[in-house]
Design a protein that fits this description.
The mean pLDDT is about 95. The radius of gyration is 10 Å and the shape is globular. It has a two-stranded antiparallel sheet with strand order 1-2. It has one domain: Arc Repressor Mutant, subunit A, CATH 1.10.10.1100. It is built from three helices and two strands; from the N terminus they run E-E-H-H-H. Helix 1 packs across helix 3. The two termini are about 20 Å apart. The protein has about 55 residues and is mostly helical. Strand 1 and strand 2 form a beta hairpin.
Length: about 55
């Protein structure tokens, strides 16, 4: 499922980034540009990132 339509970032992309050591939205944004255009994706991206890292929302 797409998380960021503007930059075509999917849940799988976030999972792969976590597998490479990404653990914050800030770092994910640096690597993928997620949330840098309209910003509507950041809440969902944070939820997916938290699920992948085992952090609570």
């Amino acid at each position: 499922m797409y998380v960021c339509i503007c930059h075509a970032i999917t849940e799988k992309d976030i999972q792969q980034a976590v597998g490479k050591g990404v653990s914050s939205i800030a770092r994910l944004s640096e690597l993928t540009m997620l949330g840098t255009q309209c910003g509507h994706c950041t809440k969902h991206a944070d939820q997916v990132l938290n699920q992948c890292t085992g952090k609570s929302s």
